[in-house]
Amino acid sequence: MRADARKNYSHILTVAREVVTEHGADASMRDIARRADLGLATLLRHFPTREALFDALLCTNLDALTQKADELETSNAPDEALMFWFRAWIAFAQSYRGVVAMMAAAHTNPDSALYASCAAVHSASARLLRRAQGEGTARADMNGDDLFALITALGWAVDQPSFAPRADHLFHLIASAILTNRSSSDAKKATC
Amino acid sequence: MRADARKNYSHILTVAREVVTEHGADASMRDIARRADLGLATLLRHFPTREALFDALLCTNLDALTQKADELETSNAPDEALMFWFRAWIAFAQSYRGVVAMMAAAHTNPDSALYASCAAVHSASARLLRRAQGEGTARADMNGDDLFALITALGWAVDQPSFAPRADHLFHLIASAILTNRSSSDAKKATC
DNA sequence: ACCTGAACACCGTTCAAGT
DNA sequence: ACCTGAACACCGTTCAAGT
After folding, report:
1. Mean of the pLDDT values across residues B148-158?
2. Partner of B138 for a Cys bridge, out of A61, A100, B18, B132, CB 3.0 to 4.6 A?
Protein backbone atom coordinates (compact mmCIF):
# COMPACT_ATOMS: atom_id res chain seq x y z
CA MET A 1 0.00 0.00 0.00
CA ARG A 2 1.27 3.46 -0.84
CA ALA A 3 2.11 5.78 2.04
CA ASP A 4 -0.79 8.17 1.45
CA ALA A 5 -3.21 5.26 1.13
CA ARG A 6 -1.98 3.75 4.37
CA LYS A 7 -2.44 7.07 6.08
CA ASN A 8 -5.99 7.41 4.77
CA TYR A 9 -6.78 3.86 5.83
CA SER A 10 -5.89 4.39 9.45
CA HIS A 11 -7.40 7.86 9.49
CA ILE A 12 -10.69 6.45 8.26
CA LEU A 13 -10.67 3.88 11.05
CA THR A 14 -10.01 6.54 13.68
CA VAL A 15 -12.81 8.75 12.42
CA ALA A 16 -15.16 5.81 11.89
CA ARG A 17 -14.70 4.80 15.52
CA GLU A 18 -15.84 8.26 16.60
CA VAL A 19 -18.83 8.40 14.29
CA VAL A 20 -19.93 4.86 15.06
CA THR A 21 -19.65 5.53 18.77
CA GLU A 22 -22.11 8.37 18.29
CA HIS A 23 -24.48 6.91 15.71
CA GLY A 24 -24.09 3.17 15.95
CA ALA A 25 -23.64 0.63 13.19
CA ASP A 26 -26.10 2.43 10.93
CA ALA A 27 -23.94 5.56 10.78
CA SER A 28 -23.79 7.18 7.37
CA MET A 29 -20.73 6.18 5.34
CA ARG A 30 -20.86 9.60 3.72
CA ASP A 31 -20.74 11.21 7.13
CA ILE A 32 -17.63 9.23 8.04
CA ALA A 33 -15.95 10.27 4.79
CA ARG A 34 -16.96 13.87 5.37
CA ARG A 35 -15.53 13.93 8.87
CA ALA A 36 -12.33 12.34 7.58
CA ASP A 37 -12.08 15.08 4.93
CA LEU A 38 -12.11 12.49 2.19
CA GLY A 39 -14.32 11.76 -0.76
CA LEU A 40 -16.91 9.06 -0.16
CA ALA A 41 -15.41 7.16 -3.08
CA THR A 42 -12.08 7.04 -1.29
CA LEU A 43 -13.62 5.53 1.81
CA LEU A 44 -15.42 2.95 -0.32
CA ARG A 45 -12.18 2.11 -2.10
CA HIS A 46 -10.70 1.05 1.22
CA PHE A 47 -13.88 -0.50 2.59
CA PRO A 48 -16.21 -1.46 -0.22
CA THR A 49 -19.06 -2.27 2.16
CA ARG A 50 -20.16 -1.22 5.61
CA GLU A 51 -19.36 -4.69 6.84
CA ALA A 52 -15.81 -4.52 5.51
CA LEU A 53 -15.36 -1.36 7.54
CA PHE A 54 -16.77 -3.01 10.63
CA ASP A 55 -14.63 -6.07 10.20
CA ALA A 56 -11.63 -3.73 10.37
CA LEU A 57 -13.13 -1.76 13.25
CA LEU A 58 -13.88 -4.87 15.28
CA CYS A 59 -11.09 -7.25 14.34
CA THR A 60 -9.04 -6.50 17.46
CA ASN A 61 -12.02 -7.13 19.71
CA LEU A 62 -13.06 -10.20 17.78
CA ASP A 63 -9.60 -11.71 17.88
CA ALA A 64 -9.42 -11.05 21.60
CA LEU A 65 -12.75 -12.82 21.99
CA THR A 66 -11.73 -15.99 20.20
CA GLN A 67 -8.36 -15.98 21.91
CA LYS A 68 -10.07 -15.62 25.25
CA ALA A 69 -12.02 -18.77 24.47
CA ASP A 70 -8.75 -20.65 24.01
CA GLU A 71 -7.35 -19.38 27.28
CA LEU A 72 -10.48 -20.11 29.27
CA GLU A 73 -10.65 -23.58 27.83
CA THR A 74 -7.36 -24.55 29.41
CA SER A 75 -7.36 -22.46 32.57
CA ASN A 76 -10.89 -22.68 33.95
CA ALA A 77 -13.56 -25.17 34.87
CA PRO A 78 -15.83 -25.82 31.86
CA ASP A 79 -18.96 -24.11 33.17
CA GLU A 80 -16.98 -21.20 34.56
CA ALA A 81 -15.13 -20.80 31.25
CA LEU A 82 -18.42 -20.77 29.33
CA MET A 83 -19.89 -18.09 31.56
CA PHE A 84 -16.78 -15.90 31.60
CA TRP A 85 -16.66 -16.04 27.83
CA PHE A 86 -20.38 -15.29 27.60
CA ARG A 87 -19.74 -12.16 29.68
CA ALA A 88 -16.93 -11.13 27.37
CA TRP A 89 -19.23 -11.56 24.38
CA ILE A 90 -21.86 -9.32 25.96
CA ALA A 91 -19.20 -6.70 26.67
CA PHE A 92 -18.22 -6.90 23.01
CA ALA A 93 -21.86 -6.59 21.98
CA GLN A 94 -22.01 -3.33 23.89
CA SER A 95 -18.96 -1.84 22.15
CA TYR A 96 -21.06 -0.13 19.48
CA ARG A 97 -24.79 0.08 19.03
CA GLY A 98 -26.12 -2.23 16.34
CA VAL A 99 -23.10 -4.53 16.01
CA VAL A 100 -24.98 -7.61 17.13
CA ALA A 101 -27.79 -7.10 14.64
CA MET A 102 -25.15 -6.64 11.97
CA MET A 103 -23.32 -9.80 12.97
CA ALA A 104 -26.51 -11.82 13.11
CA ALA A 105 -27.23 -10.75 9.54
CA ALA A 106 -23.65 -11.43 8.43
CA HIS A 107 -23.85 -14.86 10.02
CA THR A 108 -26.37 -15.88 7.36
CA ASN A 109 -24.51 -14.67 4.32
CA PRO A 110 -21.14 -16.10 3.29
CA ASP A 111 -20.45 -13.10 1.04
CA SER A 112 -20.39 -10.74 3.98
CA ALA A 113 -17.00 -9.38 5.00
CA LEU A 114 -17.98 -10.25 8.57
CA TYR A 115 -18.92 -13.83 7.82
CA ALA A 116 -15.59 -15.37 8.82
CA SER A 117 -15.52 -13.45 12.09
CA CYS A 118 -19.04 -14.60 12.91
CA ALA A 119 -18.13 -18.18 12.19
CA ALA A 120 -15.08 -17.86 14.45
CA VAL A 121 -17.19 -16.58 17.33
CA HIS A 122 -19.76 -19.27 16.70
CA SER A 123 -17.24 -22.09 16.80
CA ALA A 124 -15.44 -20.69 19.83
CA SER A 125 -18.70 -20.66 21.77
CA ALA A 126 -19.66 -24.11 20.51
CA ARG A 127 -16.35 -25.48 21.74
CA LEU A 128 -16.85 -24.06 25.22
CA LEU A 129 -20.39 -25.42 25.29
CA ARG A 130 -19.38 -28.94 24.33
CA ARG A 131 -16.74 -28.95 27.03
CA ALA A 132 -19.25 -27.94 29.69
CA GLN A 133 -21.73 -30.47 28.35
CA GLY A 134 -19.07 -33.16 28.63
CA GLU A 135 -18.78 -32.30 32.27
CA GLY A 136 -22.56 -32.24 32.65
CA THR A 137 -22.75 -28.60 33.75
CA ALA A 138 -24.41 -27.32 30.58
CA ARG A 139 -27.73 -28.53 29.22
CA ALA A 140 -27.29 -31.54 26.99
CA ASP A 141 -30.34 -30.72 24.84
CA MET A 142 -28.67 -27.76 23.20
CA ASN A 143 -26.23 -27.34 20.35
CA GLY A 144 -23.82 -24.64 19.22
CA ASP A 145 -26.49 -22.98 17.08
CA ASP A 146 -28.80 -22.72 20.07
CA LEU A 147 -26.09 -21.21 22.22
CA PHE A 148 -25.12 -18.72 19.54
CA ALA A 149 -28.76 -17.76 19.08
CA LEU A 150 -29.24 -17.22 22.82
CA ILE A 151 -26.13 -15.15 23.39
CA THR A 152 -26.80 -13.15 20.24
CA ALA A 153 -30.38 -12.55 21.30
CA LEU A 154 -29.15 -11.28 24.65
CA GLY A 155 -26.52 -9.17 22.92
CA TRP A 156 -29.28 -7.63 20.86
CA ALA A 157 -31.46 -7.08 23.91
CA VAL A 158 -28.84 -5.27 25.98
CA ASP A 159 -28.33 -3.06 22.92
CA GLN A 160 -31.89 -1.77 23.22
CA PRO A 161 -32.04 1.34 25.41
CA SER A 162 -35.12 0.11 27.25
CA PHE A 163 -33.58 -3.24 28.16
CA ALA A 164 -30.03 -2.09 28.89
CA PRO A 165 -30.66 -1.23 32.57
CA ARG A 166 -31.50 -4.89 33.27
CA ALA A 167 -28.56 -6.24 31.29
CA ASP A 168 -26.84 -7.95 34.21
CA HIS A 169 -29.99 -9.60 35.41
CA LEU A 170 -30.94 -10.72 31.91
CA PHE A 171 -27.50 -12.23 31.58
CA HIS A 172 -28.12 -14.18 34.75
CA LEU A 173 -31.48 -15.43 33.49
CA ILE A 174 -30.06 -16.67 30.19
CA ALA A 175 -27.08 -18.15 32.00
CA SER A 176 -29.45 -20.15 34.17
CA ALA A 177 -31.11 -21.47 31.04
CA ILE A 178 -27.79 -22.72 29.73
CA LEU A 179 -26.31 -24.24 32.87
CA THR A 180 -27.61 -27.42 34.43
CA ASN A 181 -27.18 -26.41 38.02
CA ARG A 182 -29.08 -23.22 38.53
CA SER A 183 -27.37 -22.13 41.70
CA SER A 184 -23.90 -23.34 40.82
CA SER A 185 -21.31 -21.25 42.60
CA ASP A 186 -19.17 -21.15 39.47
CA ALA A 187 -22.02 -19.68 37.53
CA LYS A 188 -22.67 -17.24 40.32
CA LYS A 189 -19.13 -15.99 40.14
CA ALA A 190 -19.61 -15.16 36.49
CA THR A 191 -23.20 -14.00 36.59
CA CYS A 192 -23.12 -11.78 39.68
CA MET B 1 -63.59 10.45 6.09
CA ARG B 2 -64.58 11.01 2.49
CA ALA B 3 -65.48 7.96 0.42
CA ASP B 4 -62.42 8.17 -1.84
CA ALA B 5 -60.15 8.65 1.17
CA ARG B 6 -61.63 5.65 2.92
CA LYS B 7 -61.09 3.59 -0.20
CA ASN B 8 -57.47 4.70 -0.45
CA TYR B 9 -56.93 3.95 3.23
CA SER B 10 -58.01 0.35 2.99
CA HIS B 11 -56.32 -0.12 -0.37
CA ILE B 12 -53.03 1.08 1.12
CA LEU B 13 -53.36 -1.44 3.94
CA THR B 14 -54.02 -4.27 1.49
CA VAL B 15 -51.03 -3.39 -0.65
CA ALA B 16 -48.82 -2.70 2.38
CA ARG B 17 -49.54 -6.19 3.69
CA GLU B 18 -48.28 -7.66 0.42
CA VAL B 19 -45.15 -5.53 0.23
CA VAL B 20 -44.29 -6.01 3.89
CA THR B 21 -44.76 -9.75 3.57
CA GLU B 22 -42.12 -9.68 0.84
CA HIS B 23 -39.69 -7.10 2.17
CA GLY B 24 -40.29 -6.94 5.91
CA ALA B 25 -40.72 -3.92 8.13
CA ASP B 26 -38.03 -1.98 6.27
CA ALA B 27 -40.01 -2.03 3.04
CA SER B 28 -39.90 1.20 1.07
CA MET B 29 -42.86 3.48 1.69
CA ARG B 30 -42.45 4.73 -1.87
CA ASP B 31 -42.70 1.18 -3.14
CA ILE B 32 -45.94 0.65 -1.25
CA ALA B 33 -47.36 3.86 -2.70
CA ARG B 34 -46.22 2.88 -6.18
CA ARG B 35 -47.86 -0.53 -5.97
CA ALA B 36 -51.04 1.09 -4.70
CA ASP B 37 -51.01 3.46 -7.69
CA LEU B 38 -50.95 6.42 -5.38
CA GLY B 39 -48.62 9.31 -4.81
CA LEU B 40 -46.22 8.84 -1.92
CA ALA B 41 -47.63 12.02 -0.40
CA THR B 42 -51.07 10.43 -0.30
CA LEU B 43 -49.78 7.43 1.59
CA LEU B 44 -48.00 9.69 4.06
CA ARG B 45 -51.15 11.71 4.54
CA HIS B 46 -52.91 8.59 5.81
CA PHE B 47 -49.89 7.23 7.66
CA PRO B 48 -47.44 10.00 8.49
CA THR B 49 -44.79 7.55 9.68
CA ARG B 50 -43.82 3.97 9.03
CA GLU B 51 -44.89 3.13 12.56
CA ALA B 52 -48.33 4.64 12.05
CA LEU B 53 -48.75 2.33 9.08
CA PHE B 54 -47.60 -0.65 11.10
CA ASP B 55 -49.87 0.20 13.97
CA ALA B 56 -52.75 -0.05 11.50
CA LEU B 57 -51.32 -3.19 9.90
CA LEU B 58 -50.86 -4.93 13.23
CA CYS B 59 -53.70 -3.63 15.35
CA THR B 60 -55.90 -6.67 14.79
CA ASN B 61 -53.09 -9.01 15.79
CA LEU B 62 -52.10 -6.84 18.74
CA ASP B 63 -55.64 -6.61 20.04
CA ALA B 64 -55.99 -10.37 19.73
CA LEU B 65 -52.80 -10.76 21.71
CA THR B 66 -53.89 -8.61 24.63
CA GLN B 67 -57.34 -10.14 24.59
CA LYS B 68 -55.82 -13.59 24.65
CA ALA B 69 -54.00 -12.58 27.82
CA ASP B 70 -57.34 -11.79 29.45
CA GLU B 71 -58.87 -15.09 28.40
CA LEU B 72 -55.89 -17.16 29.51
CA GLU B 73 -55.85 -15.39 32.84
CA THR B 74 -59.28 -16.70 33.74
CA SER B 75 -59.34 -20.05 31.97
CA ASN B 76 -55.90 -21.56 32.53
CA ALA B 77 -53.40 -22.38 35.25
CA PRO B 78 -51.01 -19.44 35.74
CA ASP B 79 -47.87 -21.09 34.33
CA GLU B 80 -49.77 -22.64 31.46
CA ALA B 81 -51.39 -19.30 30.67
CA LEU B 82 -48.01 -17.57 30.65
CA MET B 83 -46.52 -20.12 28.28
CA PHE B 84 -49.51 -20.20 25.91
CA TRP B 85 -49.42 -16.44 25.69
CA PHE B 86 -45.66 -16.49 25.16
CA ARG B 87 -46.25 -18.83 22.21
CA ALA B 88 -48.85 -16.49 20.79
CA TRP B 89 -46.40 -13.59 21.06
CA ILE B 90 -43.75 -15.52 19.15
CA ALA B 91 -46.30 -16.35 16.46
CA PHE B 92 -47.10 -12.64 16.25
CA ALA B 93 -43.37 -11.85 16.05
CA GLN B 94 -43.18 -14.07 13.01
CA SER B 95 -46.04 -12.34 11.19
CA TYR B 96 -43.70 -9.96 9.34
CA ARG B 97 -39.92 -9.74 9.31
CA GLY B 98 -38.58 -6.90 11.42
CA VAL B 99 -41.69 -6.18 13.50
CA VAL B 100 -40.04 -7.09 16.78
CA ALA B 101 -37.06 -4.82 16.20
CA MET B 102 -39.52 -2.08 15.32
CA MET B 103 -41.57 -2.65 18.46
CA ALA B 104 -38.50 -2.75 20.67
CA ALA B 105 -37.52 0.65 19.30
CA ALA B 106 -41.07 1.99 19.66
CA HIS B 107 -41.15 0.75 23.25
CA THR B 108 -38.53 3.37 24.15
CA ASN B 109 -40.12 6.35 22.51
CA PRO B 110 -43.51 7.70 23.67
CA ASP B 111 -43.91 9.68 20.43
CA SER B 112 -44.02 6.52 18.35
CA ALA B 113 -47.37 5.56 16.90
CA LEU B 114 -46.66 2.04 18.16
CA TYR B 115 -45.86 3.08 21.71
CA ALA B 116 -49.33 2.43 23.15
CA SER B 117 -49.48 -1.00 21.55
CA CYS B 118 -46.09 -1.88 22.98
CA ALA B 119 -47.15 -0.77 26.41
CA ALA B 120 -50.30 -2.89 26.14
CA VAL B 121 -48.30 -5.99 25.26
CA HIS B 122 -45.83 -5.23 28.02
CA SER B 123 -48.52 -4.92 30.67
CA ALA B 124 -50.42 -7.98 29.47
CA SER B 125 -47.27 -10.07 29.83
CA ALA B 126 -46.42 -8.54 33.19
CA ARG B 127 -49.89 -9.45 34.48
CA LEU B 128 -49.52 -13.07 33.42
CA LEU B 129 -46.06 -13.19 34.99
CA ARG B 130 -47.21 -11.84 38.34
CA ARG B 131 -50.00 -14.39 38.45
CA ALA B 132 -47.58 -17.25 37.84
CA GLN B 133 -45.18 -15.81 40.38
CA GLY B 134 -47.99 -15.69 42.92
CA GLU B 135 -48.46 -19.38 42.40
CA GLY B 136 -44.72 -19.96 42.60
CA THR B 137 -44.39 -21.42 39.11
CA ALA B 138 -42.47 -18.48 37.63
CA ARG B 139 -39.14 -17.19 38.89
CA ALA B 140 -39.60 -14.66 41.65
CA ASP B 141 -36.39 -12.76 40.81
CA MET B 142 -37.82 -11.33 37.62
CA ASN B 143 -40.05 -8.41 36.78
CA GLY B 144 -42.23 -7.42 33.85
CA ASP B 145 -39.36 -5.61 32.15
CA ASP B 146 -37.21 -8.73 32.31
CA LEU B 147 -39.95 -10.87 30.85
CA PHE B 148 -40.64 -8.40 28.07
CA ALA B 149 -36.92 -8.22 27.29
CA LEU B 150 -36.65 -12.03 27.14
CA ILE B 151 -39.67 -12.61 24.95
CA THR B 152 -38.71 -9.73 22.69
CA ALA B 153 -35.16 -11.03 22.41
CA LEU B 154 -36.52 -14.43 21.41
CA GLY B 155 -38.93 -12.78 19.00
CA TRP B 156 -35.98 -11.02 17.42
CA ALA B 157 -33.95 -14.22 17.29
CA VAL B 158 -36.59 -16.31 15.53
CA ASP B 159 -36.79 -13.47 13.01
CA GLN B 160 -33.19 -14.08 11.97
CA PRO B 161 -33.02 -16.59 9.12
CA SER B 162 -30.12 -18.46 10.70
CA PHE B 163 -31.89 -18.93 14.01
CA ALA B 164 -35.40 -19.59 12.73
CA PRO B 165 -34.94 -23.36 12.26
CA ARG B 166 -34.34 -23.76 16.01
CA ALA B 167 -37.22 -21.49 16.98
CA ASP B 168 -39.20 -24.14 18.86
CA HIS B 169 -36.23 -25.32 20.82
CA LEU B 170 -35.13 -21.78 21.65
CA PHE B 171 -38.63 -21.13 22.92
CA HIS B 172 -38.29 -24.12 25.19
CA LEU B 173 -34.94 -22.91 26.51
CA ILE B 174 -36.24 -19.44 27.34
CA ALA B 175 -39.40 -20.93 28.81
CA SER B 176 -37.28 -23.02 31.15
CA ALA B 177 -35.49 -19.85 32.26
CA ILE B 178 -38.81 -18.26 33.18
CA LEU B 179 -40.54 -21.15 34.90
CA THR B 180 -39.53 -22.47 38.28
CA ASN B 181 -40.14 -26.12 37.60
CA ARG B 182 -38.08 -27.05 34.59
CA SER B 183 -39.93 -30.22 33.68
CA SER B 184 -43.41 -29.05 34.63
CA SER B 185 -45.99 -30.85 32.55
CA ASP B 186 -47.90 -27.62 32.04
CA ALA B 187 -44.84 -26.02 30.57
CA LYS B 188 -44.27 -29.06 28.42
CA LYS B 189 -47.73 -28.79 26.98
CA ALA B 190 -46.97 -25.25 25.84
CA THR B 191 -43.36 -25.68 24.90
CA CYS B 192 -43.56 -28.93 22.94
C1' DA C 1 -1.36 3.45 -7.60
C1' DC C 2 -4.43 6.11 -5.53
C1' DC C 3 -7.89 9.87 -5.17
C1' DT C 4 -12.31 12.28 -6.27
C1' DG C 5 -16.15 14.95 -8.31
C1' DA C 6 -20.16 13.93 -10.53
C1' DA C 7 -24.00 11.29 -12.22
C1' DC C 8 -27.10 7.86 -10.71
C1' DA C 9 -31.01 5.56 -8.52
C1' DC C 10 -32.73 5.29 -4.36
C1' DC C 11 -34.97 7.05 0.33
C1' DG C 12 -38.55 9.92 3.42
C1' DT C 13 -40.21 14.94 4.18
C1' DT C 14 -42.59 18.91 2.94
C1' DC C 15 -45.64 21.95 0.53
C1' DA C 16 -47.74 24.67 -3.04
C1' DA C 17 -50.97 23.82 -6.57
C1' DG C 18 -54.71 21.18 -8.16
C1' DT C 19 -59.59 18.84 -7.96
C1' DA D 1 -61.58 17.57 2.02
C1' DC D 2 -58.49 15.13 -0.23
C1' DC D 3 -54.85 14.23 -3.73
C1' DT D 4 -50.23 14.85 -5.95
C1' DG D 5 -46.13 16.44 -8.57
C1' DA D 6 -42.06 18.53 -7.52
C1' DA D 7 -38.30 20.26 -4.82
C1' DC D 8 -35.47 18.94 -1.09
C1' DA D 9 -31.82 16.78 1.63
C1' DC D 10 -30.36 12.56 2.37
C1' DC D 11 -28.32 7.61 1.19
C1' DG D 12 -24.77 4.06 -1.17
C1' DT D 13 -22.89 2.74 -5.99
C1' DT D 14 -20.25 3.47 -9.91
C1' DC D 15 -16.92 5.38 -12.97
C1' DA D 16 -14.46 8.57 -15.88
C1' DA D 17 -11.09 11.97 -15.19
C1' DG D 18 -7.40 13.62 -12.53
C1' DT D 19 -2.67 13.39 -9.87
Report:
1. 98
2. B132
